[in-house]
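Let's practice the habit of predicting before peeking. Look at the sequence and jot down your guess about where helices and strands might fall. Then scroll down.
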Amino acid sequence: MIIHTLFDDYNFKGKTIIPFTTSMSTPMSSSQKYIDQMAKKNQAKSKNGFRYENSNDLKKFLKK
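Done guessing? Here is the structure:
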């Protein structure tokens, strides 16, 4: 998974990770537990991610 490389290469200490995806092949819930583990290991926080299908969904999320 490319996300593992991201955590290996960057320092997320003190950051909040909010994953998102456009992929329809795997539900976000399947990946979220791994994101949570990697964030904790890197002393970062993680929040539940989301899947979006169009830019309006993303804009709504970011405004929250």
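How did you do? The chain has a mean pLDDT of 86.
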